[in-house]
Give the backbone structure.
Amino acid sequence: MTQAAEHLRGAWKLESFEAELQASGQRFKPWGENPNGYFIVEPGGRMIALLTAGERPVGEADGDLASLFRSMVAYTGRYRIEGDRLITKVDASWNEAWNGTEQERFYHFEKDHLVLTTTWAPINFLPGSPVARGILSWVRT
């Protein structure tokens, strides 16, 4: 196990979430200035991630609940590390389409922060589902 992989283990709190559009390179914060979330990587080989947009309203009506669903990501599974990639075989997720897939994230450290970058993919919570990637910065809790 590499030193970087060992440093990855533990609990991390989300500090920022940016999306970068592949076509233009434009970066923006789709879930606001204060997104919520935790990323937990256990020594036994399991990870769990929960992310939500910042300042979400309480949902009661069906439309409100659907909006809440579109402003979150949650998944867990067994992970493996290959170089600078963390690959998770998803076995439970907020979106059934992710179950059974492998989610790949590139990781590196910037001072005391863990930075995870997703692969390029259509982002369905953005108008027109443009191809983008997420850049998430986490601090150890």
User: Anything to note?
Assistant: The CA atoms of residues 74 and 95 lie 8 Å apart. The helical segments are 3-8, 62-70.
